[in-house]
Design a protein that fits this description.
Blueprint (H helix, E strand, L loop, with lengths): L4 H14 L3 H16 L4 H28 L20 H8 L2 H4 L3 E5 L6 H14 L4 E5 H13 L3 H9 L3 E7 L6 H14 L4 E6 L6 H5 L2 H12 L2 E5 L5 H4 L15
Parallel strand pairs: 1-4, 1-5, 2-3, 3-4
Length: 261
């Protein structure tokens, strides 16, 4: 027995509500006229409706993952001026953004002076990973240490490291801006060690690897960390003057040397 359009609409409303997929109902209504006009088969019509639902769910999931990641700002490759940062090309970035390093539990390391775009690129890659369906967490090196120290002090360090291991990518920004005490260096090493060959890191630093012993106060720990980080890593050293200073009309930081008259 044929049903009326109103009855069909009610049935769709009930079914899509039960499936918790109201967008299917909306897509079905929007696409129906196109399907009739172009004489689509039932299978083609169904595929078109479901494609809209999958795309909408992916977009919604990506937004949630981006929010949960804790990025300091939304940065994309489209906002980055590759013409002024010649140490990394758009092709280099595209290769990283493909996500192959995530599939291989590899790492990306961005080194270079302040203001050369390290955080921008790390954030853009993290947001791309979110759109690819991966869980991501961002924090500065200092904030990661605070998080791990709090877990250690409350007897939750092992649980915290296991929890972090469920994130496909974590971003550690600004390694080297502040030195770490011995306990902090040990905690940082545990974070790096537990992710080795299991999940990915993006790490930025204003210092070359040769000076990491100064940051961690222990050359042996620094060497062990670097060994694990770079074993499966793509390393880029960015160059040039700070783009922030360029906006002020200067290409270098002011001297900290006090002159006397």
């Amino acid at each position: 027995m044929a049903t009326t359009p109103a009855e069909t609409a009610k049935t769709l409303e009930y079914l899509t509500t039960s499936l918790k997929a109201p967008r299917i109902r909306e897509a079905a209504a929007r696409i129906a006229d196109t399907a009739r006009t172009n004489h689509w088969s039932y299978e083609e019509y169904l595929a078109a409706v479901l494609e809209r639902e999958v795309a909408a769910r992916n977009a919604s999931g990506a937004r949630l993952r981006i929010t949960a990641a804790g990025f300091p700002a939304i940065k994309t490759a489209e906002d980055f001026d590759f013409s002024t940062q010649t140490a990394i090309t758009h092709t280099d970035y595209a290769a990283m953004a493909s996500g192959r390093y995530l599939a291989e539990a590899g790492n990306i390391v961005l080194l270079g002076p302040p203001g050369t775009g390290k955080t921008h690129l790390a954030t853009a890659l993290g947001i791309t990973a979110c759109h690819q369906g991966h869980r991501v967490l961002y924090a500065t090196a200092v904030d990661w240490i605070h998080r791990l120290k709090n877990a250690h002090d409350t007897g939750r360090l092992d649980a915290e490291l296991r929890k972090l291991g469920r994130y496909r990518l974590i971003i550690i920004d600004e390694v080297g801006y502040l030195p770490f005490e011995q306990e902090a260096a040990n905690l940082f090493f545990q974070l790096i060690s537990t992710r080795y060959e299991k999940a990915s890191l993006i790490l930025t630093s204003n210092l070359p690897f040769a000076r990491w012993g100064e940051v961690f106060g222990d050359v042996t720990i620094a060497a062990a960390m670097i060994d694990r980080i770079v074993h499966h890593a793509e390393v880029h050293t960015l160059k040039g003057a700070s783009y922030r200073l360029k906006t002020l009309g200067t290409d270098s930081l002011p001297s900290t040397t006090h002159q006397t008259n």
